[in-house]
């Protein structure tokens, strides 16, 4: 449990809870921030150690500062396994081995981040549009 929490960057906040790792949480996790709940979910996945993961909008409801922490945790968790990431925040998929851009359920582009940027297609438009305002 401790190794999983350290792997996904959850250890620091867990140790700061009233009783650290022994803190009891409510069923709905309402005493935690959205980012903390995400980190705990990622830590649970690390403990389960599945060969394949599906992450559906894993960073969609957290702020960009917390997203950076969660993303580092997800990067650690994704190492050496197959992971399907469904995301609208393109920073979530930037380090992926392969990115597929879908439009109405059809794959319209496929490649690494750098390949898709070089193509200057839909991914490029989405990526540059998303980061002009950041």
TrEMBL record:
Which GO molecular function terms does the record list?
A: ABC-type oligopeptide transporter activity; ATP binding; ATP hydrolysis activity
Q: Which PANTHER family does the protein's record reference?
A: ATP-BINDING CASSETTE SUB-FAMILY B MEMBER 10, MITOCHONDRIAL, ATP-DEPENDENT PERMEASE MDL1, MITOCHONDRIAL
Q: What is the protein name stated in its UniProt record?
A: ABC transporter domain-containing protein
Fetch the Pfam families from UniProt: ABC_tran (PF00005)
For the ABC transporter domain, which residue ranges apply? Answer: 10-60
Source lineage: Bacteria, Bacillati, Bacillota, Bacilli, Lactobacillales
